[in-house]
Amino acid sequence: MLGPSTRIYVPDGAVKVRNLRIGDQVIALDGIKMGVHTVTYVQTMLKPMDQLLKIRFEGVEKVLTCTLDTVFYQPGIGSVQVKAENLQIGQTVKGLHHGTFTVLSKESIVEEHQLKKFEKEGDLYKLYNIGLDGVLNYYLASGLLVSGLTMEQSQSEIDRMKEFNAKFE
User: Domains in the chain and their CATH numbers?
Assistant: First the structure.
């Protein structure tokens, strides 16, 4: 789940995740190559501030605000996943054009002013996620490869695809 101002890559630039609608086209990972895919759902969720992080990556213009359980991918062969809460300073994650981005800082949210661009309901803050057609839901957020699935859902899908592909080997 991502903050409302997180930019999602689309064919002609980037759009804030809060402005995406069903039917919009976004850039996503399809196997080992990037492709254009259609948004099939836009999901919102309310989370308390203690479930959110601000992470700064080398080479990424803006700080990324996400939930503790947002899934990133480490470089290397396969889909080695890491939750945002487990990212370490100096660790690298996959990004645009199979590049890597290094974590420069990670900040817990402790005061409301850190979330001034967020919609709020009571003590909860609104975050966004999208679903895509025909891919395992890996898309580019601020140039970083993230998953719209939880780590458990994502691993389950990866295992299912490996089983399917093994039938044809």
Answer: 7-166 (2.170.16.10)
Rounded CA gap, 163 and 148, in Å?
Answer: 22
**DSSP 8-state symbol, 111:** S
Nearest partner of 137 among 127, 126, 124, 148, judged by Cα: 148
Helical spans, DSSP H, in the chain: 151-166
Two tokens, residue 31:
């196997």
Average model confidence (pLDDT) across the chain: 82
Spatial separation of the C-alpha atoms in residues 6 and 15, rounded to whole Å: 8
What average pLDDT score do residues 134-157 get?
A: 65
Amino acid present at 16: K
Residues 6 or more apart whose CB falls under 8 angstroms from that of 46 comprise 121, 124, 125, 126, 127
Strand, coil or helix: what is 63?
Answer: coil
Q: What is the DSSP letter of 156?
A: H
pLDDT of residue 50 exceeding 90, the answer is yes
Q: Parallel, antiparallel, or unpaired for β 124-132 and 33-48?
A: antiparallel
Compute the distance between CA of residue 113 and CA of residue 66 in angstroms, rounded to an integer.
16
